[in-house]
Amino acid sequence: MGEPVPQDGESSVIVSLSDAAMHMYTAAIDALPFPEDKKFHKRADVVLSGLRKLRSGLTDAAGRSRSTSSVILALSDVRKRYDSLMTRAAAAPDSSLGQQLYAARIEARLSAEEVANGAGLRVDLINDLEGGETPTEEEAAKVRNLITALGGVPGTEHLTNHDHHEPQHHDQHGGEHHDGEHNNGEQSNDQIADAFVNGWEESFIGGSG
User: What is the per-residue pLDDT for 209?
Assistant: First the structure.
């Protein structure tokens, strides 16, 4: 017996949840600090994690036999946002190897499976790295060679040594910023932003099941 066919009402609920989540994610992306800021990756990673879950839910919905055009458009919007933020994160100091690989392969218009097959790597390794997992030294060497073969990380062509040196931050008076020197207001805003993102992840997943 086949799976139940989703009704238009179900698609409408899924799209409504997606739209609400994307409104929040867009605001979070717009509020991200400069890529050189030490808080950038922490806050970007929270948004990227939520976008991955949202993308997964919409991909499942779009794959059903009676998916609607609104679901397809919502999925397209999420993928565009995700690609844009991953590319931005990959070009930032201290980016992960997975972010760099993702940006390089989408610039080359290649899927994870195509890249894995061409480089002799497991496709699940590619997906895990792009999702934030840490590779072994042997895997990291292969991935770095793959990134170079794909043309490098987009947006870093001007750098002569892309080893992600630790940046120093200066305020308008020339003083350096160090970890732990942010005021309580900034820390509270970060925590609030993270809480909203995580809350929307769970709301969408629960509503799309």
Answer: 44
